[in-house]
Amino acid sequence: MIQLYIPLNFLGVLYREIKQSLTDLDKMFTLMEREREVADKPGAQPLTGQEHPAVRFEHVTFGYEPARVILHDLSFEVPAGKTVAVVGPSGSGKSTLARLLFRFYDVQQGRITIAGQDIREVTQASVRRSIGIVPQDTVLFNDTIEYNIAYGRAGASRAEVEAAARAARIHDFIESTPRGYQTMVGERGLKLSGGEKQRVAIARTLLKDPPILIFDEATSALDSANERAIQAELRSAAQNKTALVIAHRLSTVVDAHEILVMDGGRIIERGTHLQLLARGGRYAAMWALQQKES
Ligand code: ATP
């Protein structure tokens, strides 16, 4: 029996490893698919001075297809260590800003700079190393919770993974699962709620500790306790970082250095929360509506 068990067990491990590599490969191909859109310039050097970088969009015009312009002559700055929030209706171009900053695509006109350098002039790898994204819907691998968090930084120790999980306030939840950090998650493991997945993504990003943060708030409704918790975690994750927050709930943006209100690929209003309320325009109307709803 033991003779049979060993090869079967081995096959099981092999199967799991192949499956895992396939999941990773899948993800890699998706990324490569996008990477074909942009390429490093010959001789491109890594980004420099990105410890406390400002991010600037200067007269950016962009469309996924030449015939359809999505962003029209957009300019704004996220000063070093500050948070700028973007709000606006679905399809107004908010996530496109994040994709351009991560350089999934190149702009057609204008430029995007990090620490004063045009992101087309430096290596993609260095741009992506300096940015952490907390996406709307986090991809979890069919592996342990530990692996899924450690994915933020290759070679992270267990203690570092735990520290990140504590900061993202998901440690207690992990400890309550059947096998703690060794609990399998993903399609064939423990299913996590939208809020829990976003916390895993925040923990990953904290572990990566990039100077620039992009947070794409989940559109799916979280219960209000969960929502408040995520917002608190986000605030701590964004401390001292240059952060671009794509927000669906205005309560997330109240403290932002500047709020950009987008519509149809244009910034139609901008200012702090109080300035925009005083203006009595679109933002003030959105705020009044959300207050009524909650
Ligand atoms: P939401 O709040 O729903 O996430 P959004 O403001 O983030 O919306 P974007 O995702 O930036 O909007 O999309 C802006 C426009 O670009 C939309 O009209 C969308 O259809 C279009 N678009 C987005 N991705 C692509 C793509 N890969 N190819 C072509 N068009 C796209």
Give a written overview of the molecule.
- By secondary structure, this protein is of the alpha/beta class.
- Helices cover 40% and strands 19% of the residues.
- The chain contains 10 helices and 10 strands.
- It has helices at residues 2-35, 94-101, 124-129, 145-150, 158-167, 171-175, 194-208, 224-238, 273-279, 282-293; strands at 55-62, 71-78, 83-87, 109-114, 117-118, 131-134, 212-216, 242-246, 258-263, 266-271.
- The strands form 2 sheets. It has a 6-stranded mixed sheet, with helices on both faces. Strands 2-1-4-5 form a 4-stranded antiparallel sheet, covered by helices on one side.
- Strand 7, helix 8 (224-238) and strand 8 form a beta-alpha-beta unit.
- Helix 5 (158-167) crosses helix 7 and helix 9 (273-279) packs across helix 10 (282-293).
- It is globular and about 50 Å long.
- Residues 64, 70, 88, 90-96 line the site of adenosine-5'-triphosphate (ATP).
